[in-house]
Amino acid sequence: MKNFYYFILSGAVLFLALGTAIAGDTIIKKAIQDGSIHRAVFKVENLTCGACFSNINAGLAPLEGFSGMGANLLRNLVAVDFVGPLSANEIGAAITQKGYPATLESVDPIMKKESFAYLNTRQKGPGFGGGSCCTLPGGS
What we know:
Alpha-Beta Plaits
């Protein structure tokens, strides 16, 4: 369980740095309403940089039920939030198809406030609609 908390902590750091991908509002609303959000954690080969995160996201975004994802590049882990009808096996196959062989580590139900989609709505500041990383203090 201790490793899981380290995963969440390090994933949160990368989540803030890399952002998150979010599916359509209807999927998120459905998941929030019925509490059926699940998080699948995969051990993924070939993760080297943020571009890997983007490539995996591009493979998952079209899947109905995909809600968001985070990655821990140091530990080669990808966490994916989803709702039915999508399954962890389908997610793993989509990640593998993008060139990143994925092995399912765990699948657990999560609370709304733990989901990447919810966390993204709570973010403020640079990179989250509250400013720009290139804006200098004083409006320059």
